[in-house]
Design goal:
By secondary structure, the chain is α/β, with parallel strands linked by helices. 43% of the residues lie in helices and 18% in strands. The chain has a 5-stranded parallel sheet, sandwiched between helices. Strands 6-9 form a two-stranded antiparallel sheet. Helix 1 (12-24) crosses helix 5, helix 2 (42-54) packs across helix 3 (69-75) and helix 4 (89-97) runs parallel beside helix 5 (113-125). The protein is globular. It starts with a strand and ends with a strand.
Length: 180
């Protein structure tokens, strides 16, 4: 499985352990930063990973922040992303079995490399149950599409911005004209 991994500065050490664990388990893990534990702005790193999952270039992602809350907020801005902040075995299992989460968010303040490994293994090995959960997830996707279509069709305002929203709602780090 192709898995993107990213963190903030607080999660740097835990992230390095996760990348190693994933590779040892036979996964194609790619580290999207940061490259050190110097203070950084986590949205940039969360966005890189979420964008690639949204585009289908990565199967899943694991994001590690101080609490993981901000990472999950950023990731869930991307179309098709179902990021789940998990703190225990049960939330990791249900995030996959019921919600088909494609991004796992973890707290570096709660987990070290070893304790995160258990949650990650549960999350990676748990399959989506489908059934009534598929119907609910389809409704979530429908709501997401309705919102994106409403934003795109409601008004067309052209302006120069640092981050452009593309046709699939993914980020590009250049200055370009966008729909607002």
């Amino acid at each position: 499985m192709k898995i993107a991994v990213a963190s903030n500065h607080t999660g740097y050490v835990v992230k390095a352990g996760i990348v190693s664990l994933l590779r040892q388990s036979g996964h194609d893990a790619t580290d999207f930063g940061p490259a050190s534990d110097d203070i950084c702005d986590y949205p940039e790193y969360a966005a890189k990973a979420a964008e690639l999952v949204s585009q289908g270039k990565m199967d899943r992602a694991i994001l590690v922040g101080s609490t993981g809350i901000g990472m999950s907020i950023v990731a869930n801005k991307f179309r098709g992303i179902r990021a789940a902040l998990c703190h225990c075995d049960h939330s990791a299992r249900v995030s996959r079995s019921d919600n088909d989460a494609n991004i796992l968010c973890l707290s570096a303040e709660l987990f070290n490399e070893q304790s995160a490994a258990r949650i990650i293994n549960i999350w990676l090995k748990t399959s989506f149950d489908g059934g009534r959960h598929a119907r609910r997830n389809a409704r979530i996707s429908q709501i997401e599409t309705e919102i994106w279509n409403a934003v795109a069709g409601d008004r067309m305002i052209t302006k120069s911005v640092d981050v452009a929203v593309h046709e699939h709602g993914v980020l590009a780090g250049n200055r370009s004209r966008v729909r607002d």
